[in-house]
Amino acid sequence: MFPFESAQDFEIKISEDHELFRRSVREFSEEILAKNVMQIEKTNSIPNDSEAIIKAKELGLLGIGIPQEYGGQGGDSLMLAITNEEVARVCPAFAALIGANYLFTTPLLIFGTEEQKKKYVPPVAKGEVFAAHANTEPGAGSDVAGIKTTARKEGSRYIINGRKYFITGADRAKYLVVSARTSPPSKERWRGITFFIVDTEMPGVKIGSKINVIGLRGEQPNEVILDNVEVPEENILGKVDEGFKVAVTTYDKGRVGVAAQAVGIAQGAFEKAFNYSLSRKTFDRPLISYEGIAFKLADMLVELEAARLLTYWAANMNDKNRKEAVMVSSLAKLMATEVAEKVSSLSIKIHGGAGVDQQNGVERYLRDAIITTIYEGANDIQRLTIVRDLVRKILGTNIEIM
Q: Which of 26, 121, 233, 242 has a Cα-to-Cα distance from 193 of 20 to 30 A?
């Protein structure tokens, strides 16, 4: 059982409410999102006044997992995972749109003051405004401690200067959480970082150009430039110089959402491959009658269902606030995203020439899957997290793995 203590640790609880909720999200995805996917791909845009966003607001999909006292719909980590999965099955970019908000509300709910929670979380949870998480920089992605953005204190205000990169949702965000160095780097590199709540309408905030990444058309990231942005002291999120904890805690919580996105991508790619293999004939035989195709489909389903179970388990562990949840979330993110990439690639191969035709909507799953292996902590970072947790469990201390 190592590193777990009991077979009961592997329990996954899924209620009837979870299944009813899934059906409502699937209905939204199939009836609203599906008919807009090709337009989203073509224009690389999901307008705030689009039918999809308006309906998502009505259904409360932007507030799942957020307590009702802060304007959310309530619910647990599994419900949020189901949302990500069912939406990504049809349109991974829309799942990324939803996820960007949670990278803002999650640190607010964990580290924010009561005043901050009441001011900033409800409008985001209700879909009245959007928000984003601005931490990544050109020279600091997985290495959170490597950020160069600075925040200099002047009286009761901080002056922020820097450049953020690959910020999902920045172009539609009203609010950002922004990391900056408030103290110079020391031997303990993680110290000296502080998070701030920034209104994008503050003087000096500029949303830069969209970054044309390989996938997620419709919700591609932007650059954010901070030029002498004055932020009041009450906008500090958490403790001064301890923002590293804000960052890693946020990513630990958000990792299950990315795993669920990947499960949805794999599910969508698998369904397309299976349906195509039934309808497409060569030499007067359906593709599925060929052993080479049938075995690929079987392997795809095995890995898809394993990834789903691991992701649901991680969501349950988070809901139980188990200390092992961080490792399990890394396991889920690592496996589900790599399964999504593999299943999407096999789906293209089963489709043959039709698989690389953008109109068929198969190749976009692979483009989107590749991104899930990178954001919210690249997969090799997940491997490091897993092994470090194993070592810590035995030795009671950390060990450097480079």
A: 121
Q: Is position 401 within any domain?
A: no
Render pLDDT for 118-166 as a digit per residue (tens, 0 to 9): 999 999 999 999 999 999 999 888 888 899 999 999 999 999 999 999 9
- pLDDT above 90 (res 175): yes
N- to C-terminal Cα separation, the chain: 27
Contact in structure between 236 and 195 (CB atoms under 8 Å): yes
Residue 209: CATH number of its domain:
2.40.110.10
Packing angle of the helix pair 243-279, 325-351 (nearest 10 deg): 30
Number of domains in the chain: 3
Containing domain of residue 209, as a range?
133-241
The CA distance from 64 to 395, in Å, is 38
Q: Check whether 105 has a pLDDT greater than 90.
A: yes
pLDDT at 257 over 80: yes
> Quick one: which of 371, 52, 8 has its CA closest to 214?
371
Buried/exposed code over 38-53 (b: 16+ C-beta within 10 A; e: otherwise): eebbeeebbeeebebb
Q: How far is CA 69 from CA 21, 52, 337, 373, in A?
A: 21, 26, 34, 34
8 A C-beta contact, residue 253 and residue 106: yes
The catalytic residue among 114, 128, 376, 400 is: 376
Shared domain check, 159 and 98: no
| Whether 11 is catalytic | no
Q: How many CB atoms lie within 10 A of CB 295?
A: 10
pTM (two decimals): 0.95
Nearest to 103 by CA among 240, 247, 308: 247
| Judgement on whether residues 381 and 253 belong to the same structural domain of the protein | yes
Q: For 340-397, how does the pLDDT look when each residue is reduced to its tens digit (9 = 90+)?
A: 999 999 999 999 999 999 889 999 999 999 999 999 889 999 999 999 889 888 877 7
Q: Given pLDDT bands bounded at 50, 70 and 90, which one contains residue 8? A: confident
Do 191 and 291 belong to one domain?
no
**Residue whose C-alpha is closest to residue 72's, from 125, 146, 132:** 125
Smallest CA-to-CA distance from 279 within 271, 290, 288, 270 is with 288
Q: Is residue 386 part of a domain?
A: yes
Q: Which CATH number do you get for residue 262? A: 1.20.140.10
